[in-house]
Structures are given as C-alpha cells and as structure tokens.
Amino acid sequence: FSHRDGGVQRMNSISHANSTGAVDTVELKVKFQGKFILLPPLSRSSTIGEIKLLLEDTTLVPICRQKLIGLVKGKLPDDEMMIRDLVLKGKAPHQFTLLGTPDSQLLVDPADRDDLPEVVDDFNLNFVEFSTSWHRSRRNARKLAEFTAKTDISVISEPRPGKQLLVLDLDHTLLDFSKHGQLQNTMEMQRPYLDEFLSAVFTSYDLVIWSQTSWRWLEVKMTELGMLNNPRYRICFVLDKTSMFSIISQRKGKDFKHQVKPLQLIWSKFAHWSAENTFHVDDLGRNFALNPSCGVKIRAYYRAKDPMGEDRELPLLAAYLLFRANQASSSSDQASTSTTTTVGRTSSHDVTGHDVTYDVRGWRAIAEKLVQELASSQRQGGTVMGGAASEPPDSL
C-alpha cells in the first residue's frame, strides 16, 4: 500500500491537534443514518474539503454525494474555506448532519432481499453476448486502456510459478462491513470459515482482493482482520474502486449503468495469467460482466441474516475451486486428448476444430455433489480433487 501512504499521512495531519493548546482545535459530531459519530479533534486550519475527506473515510459516502446540514447557518461555504473562518452552530462538540449514500448501498442485488419472490436472475444470463458487443466498442476499449495505464499495482507478495489466479471481492463475499459501528469485535465481520477458505485455496491459487470501496477503508479493515500478515496464506496484491469503471449494458430492454472489474487490467500486467487460468468470485454478477467465463457468483453474506454463523458458502466454494484446480493440472498432463477442462470453464472442440468455451455456471451443484461424495467416503485426509472424494481438512 506504499503508493497510497500519502493519503493516510494527509488524514493524520487533518486530525492533528495543535500542541499550543485546545483553543487551536475544534470538535465535531456528525449524525449519519441515525447515529452520532465523534470526529477526531481538527485543527482550525483544516478546510471544509478536508472535513469531507475525513467523512468519506469514516462513512464511505463519496464527497460528490455528501450534503452537510447544520454545520453553519445558511449555505455551506466552498471547500477551500478554513474552520477558523466559519461561524459554527452550537457548543462544542459542534453537531451537524451528513446526508448521502455509500457506494455499497446504491445498488442492491434482488437475490439479497427477503421480501421478493423467487425469480430467475436473467441479468446474469446474457453476459456472454454482452461481452462480445463490449469488445466491439471502441469507446469502452479506450476506457480499458486508460484505466490499465493509470493503475499502478503494488505487489505485496510475489506471484508463485504455476499458480492459477483467484480474484476475490471483499464486502458481502468474504466479509460484511455493514453496521460496523455496532460490532464488539472486528473479527465479527468475517464470513464463517474465511481463514480456512483462504488457507485451503492458497495451495493452488495466488490470491488477489478487488473491492468496490475506498483504498483507505480497505487497507484499515484488512489490517485489522489480519489478512495481510496471516502465516497460512498471502495476498498477492489489492485493487480498489479506482481500478473500476462504468459501462452501460441492457437489463430487460433498458439501459443499465454499472461498474465492472475488468480482469484484462490484471492480465495485461501479468502475462502468465489469462482467461484460461483465472477465477473471479463476487456476490454481484455485474462486476464480471466483461469476463463472464471467469466469474463465479456466490450468495451475498449479511451477518443479520446469519446470526448463528451457519453460512456454508465458503466451504462449498473451496471444494469447487480445488476440484477445478486439479482438473487444470490433469488436463495439462493430457493435452493431446480431444476434450480438456481448464481452470475456469469446460472447453471442448466442435466439428470445425474450433475451441468452444463455456462460462462458469452451476458451480454450487458441482460443489454439493462433491460434498455428498465426501460424506459417503471412508477415506481420511486430503481434499476433493479431480472428481475423487476424500476427506477435506477438519477446519473446513
């Protein structure tokens, strides 16, 4: 994260209390979504823009959507205005209200709601066709080139020779950041079996985290959860929302604007990874709209819906990913056969001799079958590999 340290240092300087005395600092309390948040003491030389930056880190509401009410009388001054030049309302700590919506709350996957009937998620079914049309678009191709050029990937742990790539979303896939202010323990954010899952798949995959959230928040939470220094697995690198861009696709005949995580951005910088040896796991299928053959959509995780910690999505996913990794290894040893199976999808040759690739779907059914085979197996030790059932690690 070294190339982002400047932002952290800037935030520290914003909240730094002047050593000459309390008279040179001011305390602010913000009401956001019904709760009060006491901000750290701010220097009176801090600006409105710096307050907004601090609020973005604290609430995940982007500056462009923030509306501050009650900080001063009348219209809020320009971002360059310093606190010392403001007439703040009330006594310290000065209270005001923040209106705005975090990125994570803008779009809600219908599959994550309890009040809707069971429906077929047809939005995910047309990604192959959409991806083809996307590649024909010069405008979006230029956008991909632009984001690829400006993205500086800071490697935390070097890629290992021969390992496949596993790109993992964070919020509602591995963790639940929502209502974080009510947590007694930061570790409560974890989806059940998170460490066991990452440890298991690390044996076959290099791990990359790609989250649709701000860098500073992402770094802090991953550090608190011990994901960057766990001795059982290593994270290769981390990407945040600044490496994503918006595209327009169609949903039920209407234009639908949403952001995507273009895997080509990674492949262009690491030539040994491609669509043939990459998985992308996310709770939002639209995030891998440009690379549907690599996408594995899992059920979103919400702690409020799983108070007893009974969620078993990650153990199922581990069984599937290890199964696919073994298939890839086996197929490399049998490259001369007419039908092969790659890491992310099943591939075969049609009558014309062309390679036909199918995107990943129905992974959960495969994983559940593997688990059933495990339950009936009398073998001990090992994992499910290459279709043979054997007992997974006790932790899973």
Automatic annotation (TrEMBL):
Its EC number is 3.1.3.16. The keyword Transmembrane helix does not apply. GO terms for biological process: regulation of proteasome assembly. One of its GO terms (cellular component) is nucleus. One of its GO terms (molecular function) is metal ion binding. It is an enzyme of class 3 (hydrolase). This is protein-serine/threonine phosphatase. It comes from Octactis speculum.
